[in-house]
Amino acid sequence: MPFPEATEGETQRIALGLHRMDAALISELVDRYQYRLVRYLIYITGRREHVEDLVQETWVRVLTRATQYGGRARFETWLFSIAHNLAIDGMRKRQILSLDDSPTTASEGNASATLLAPLHSSPFLAAARGEDAMRLAGALELLDAKYREVLLLRFQEDLSLLEISKVVGVPVATISSRIHRGLRLLRSHWKGDTSAS
User: Fold this and answer.
1) What pTM did the predictor assign?
2) CATH: 1.10.150.20, 1.10.8.50, 3.30.379.10, 1.10.1740.10. Which one for 1-117?
3) For a surface tag, which of 110, 129, 142, 165 has the fewest beta carbons within 10 Å of its beta carbon?
C-alpha cells in the first residue's frame, strides 16, 4: 500500500499521533520506515551485526521522545537523526571496548575475519541485485562512512541538503562538499581507479 507524501498536513498528523501515542499510527510508521531504517543503519555502520539492536533502540527512542517531534520537519529527518546519533554512540562504545581488549582476544580475530572476508559476504552486496548493482554496492562499501551516509540520504532517501545537515549535525556546506567528494570517489572506485582516495 503506498504511503502519503510527507506534506505539512502529514507531518502534523504524525506529530499529533505521536503525542497521543496512537498505536495505529506507530504501527504505520514502523511499516513505512522499518526497511529504510535498517538499510540506512547498515550503510552507515558498514555491517549487519548490531543493526537490529540499533533499529529497536531507535524506535524506543522515538516513543520516549514522541512529544519532541513537532512536525516542523519531515518525520524521516527526525528518525534518521535519532538513528545516526545512536549508531555513532554505538560505534564509539565498540571502539572503546576494542581498545581495551588485548591483541589476542577472540573479538579481534573476529574483526580481522570481517575485514578479510570476501566481498560477496558484505551486507551491501548481499542486498544488491544484478551486476551493476553489485558493482555499485562494492564501490559504496569502499567509501568512508561519512561519504556513504550522505550519498544514501541524498540519493536513496531523497533528503534535501538541509535535512541531511540536520541528520548528520554538520553545516550544509560540509554536506555539499561530502556529496561531491563522495561522488568523485565513487566514480573512481566504479572505474577501478583507487588513486582518487
Assistant:
1) 0.69
2) 1.10.1740.10
3) 129
